[in-house]
């Protein structure tokens, strides 16, 4: 019945990332044709507030003309060049300078790639290279966390702590381990407050390092706020205690700022919000407001020095992509950073973020809502079958996906993650748009309640 519609062409031709492929063959796609500010429009002309900024990324919304002009200007001047074998170009140099200057801890150099996955993959390789340079080839294990999301390349999917990214892909690879998820609401024990929970997780990390042998553990990777794992905000004192363990065993810290970077948490980087002192930082998404693909890896001076020493032995630093620091992406990133500065996007995010958190917090007393959590302009609302016992819904019900479907009907796109709804709107969202987003979520929550009552005798 779909005929030669755009939906049937999609089903016939596209292998969709992150999609239930079987269901897609009958459901078909939602085709987005344009956008304005924080909204996108579908091919039937319906408008939606993009409550997740696409994939947590279009921080300046969907029609920022200055980013388009920056891209076109660069395309006309120098559409491509690279930085292999001593070549360079000004947009790349200027962006590296800017990022090193913006870093919340002293960083030495910036390396460019196209995606968050490639940036984290690069971080893994740099950690291994670093320890080879220091003459300790046995110190190679990297610890990620359960429910973390770091991407989908072979190494970054291994760092990711979600079963869908491992199962049947034969991952994780060797030398990558996972420690506890810092989600207090879900995983605390009876009577355990956030600080005690953080102490227990730090002790568990220490035990893991001891079991493996500290001489074999090279690095720990963390998102300041876990995004795709369900918007998990670290409990009080967590990073302070984790970092004490890392320092004790000479284990590097990689901060994955792919979602948190550039204002999302109400500071330029999530590392500032939560007191991380990373040796390596990875960033992407809001670096260009997602108008062009670009990611960056910032490395500390000791890591850079080790790269120099190791590459000297071999004659070359044997890592880099054709599109490492694509000039058009770099030009768009420079314009993005300029706009962040001119509009003080961090202060704006803090203000509208507080409004989003307060707006969602009003649903804490709702019978279906187990937890409302968040910081700045990132938030999660977790639904539960039983508020008192935190009993989750039967996953087969797909309650959060159902709510997201209702929200779409009310003109809001939200991200269902298990039983949690993720919020991460464009940073340019206005207070009125925040209120509207929250109101549309509220309507979808009412619909979900009615659906549960009528369909499932809840
Ligand atoms: N790291 C984090 C924290 C992410 O959220 C993502 C993507 O959502 C990635 C890494 C991977 O980035 P990409 O999809 O650009 O490879």
TrEMBL record:
Keywords: Aminotransferase, Pyridoxal phosphate, Transferase. SUPFAM superfamilies: PLP-dependent transferases (SSF53383). The keyword ATP-binding does not apply. Its cofactor is pyridoxal 5'-phosphate. GO terms for molecular function: adenosylmethionine-8-amino-7-oxononanoate transaminase activity; pyridoxal phosphate binding. GO terms for biological process: biotin biosynthetic process; gamma-aminobutyric acid metabolic process. CDD domains: OAT_like (cd00610). This is Aminotransferase, class III. It comes from Rhodospirillum centenum (strain ATCC 51521 / SW). The lineage of its organism: Bacteria, Pseudomonadati, Pseudomonadota, Alphaproteobacteria, Rhodospirillales.
């Amino acid at each position: 019945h779909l005929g030669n519609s755009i939906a049937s062409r999609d089903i016939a031709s596209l292998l969709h990332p992150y999609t239930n492929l079987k269901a897609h063959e009958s459901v078909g796609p939602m085709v987005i044709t344009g956008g304005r500010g924080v909204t996108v429009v579908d091919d039937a002309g319906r408008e939606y507030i993009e409550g997740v900024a696409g994939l947590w990324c279009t921080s300046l919304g969907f029609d920022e003309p200055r980013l388009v002009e920056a891209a076109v200007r660069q395309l006309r001047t120098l559409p491509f060049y690279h930085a292999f074998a001593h070549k360079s170009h000004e947009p790349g140099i200027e962006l590296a300078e800017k990022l090193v200057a913006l870093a919340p801890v002293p960083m030495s150099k910036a390396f460019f790639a196209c995606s968050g996955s490639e940036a984290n993959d690069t971080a893994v390789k740099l950690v291994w290279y670093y320890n080879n340079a220091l003459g300790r080839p046995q110190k190679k294990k990297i610890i990620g966390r359960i429910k973390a999301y770091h991407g989908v390349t072979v190494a970054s999917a291994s760092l990711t702590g979600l079963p869908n990214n491992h199962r049947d892909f034969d991952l994780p690879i060797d030398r990558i381990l996972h420690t506890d998820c810092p989600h207090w609401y879900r995983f605390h024990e009876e009577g355990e407050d956030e600080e005690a929970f953080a102490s227990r997780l730090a002790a568990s990390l220490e035990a893991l390092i001891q079991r493996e042998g500290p001489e074999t553990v090279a690095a720990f990777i963390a998102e300041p706020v876990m995004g795709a794992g369900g918007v998990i905000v670290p409990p009080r004192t967590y990073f302070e205690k984790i970092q004490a363990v890392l320092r004790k065993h000479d284990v590097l810290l990689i901060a994955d700022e792919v979602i948190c970077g550039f204002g999302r948490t109400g500071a330029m980087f999530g590392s500032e919000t939560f007191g991380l002192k990373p040796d390596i930082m990875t960033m992407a998404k809001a670096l260009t407001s997602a108008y062009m693909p670009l990611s960056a890896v910032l490395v500390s001076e000791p890591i850079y020095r080790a790269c120099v020493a190791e590459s000297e032995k071999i004659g070359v630093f044997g890592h880099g992509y054709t599109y490492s620091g694509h000039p058009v992406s770099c030009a768009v990133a420079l314009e993005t950073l300029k706009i962040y500065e001119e509009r003080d996007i961090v202060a704006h995010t803090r203000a509208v973020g507080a409004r989003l958190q307060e707006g969602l917090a009003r649903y804490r007393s709702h019978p279906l809502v187990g937890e409302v959590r968040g910081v700045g302009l990132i938030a999660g609302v977790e639904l539960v079958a039983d508020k008192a016992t935190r009993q989750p819904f039967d996953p087969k019900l797909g309650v959060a996906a159902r709510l997201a479907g209702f929200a779409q009907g009310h003109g809001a796109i939200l991200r269902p993650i298990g039983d949690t709804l993720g919020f991460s709107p464009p940073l340019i969202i206005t207070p009125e748009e925040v209120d509207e987003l929250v109101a549309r979520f509220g309507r979808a929550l009412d619909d979900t309640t009615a659906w549960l009552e009528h369909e499932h005798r809840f």
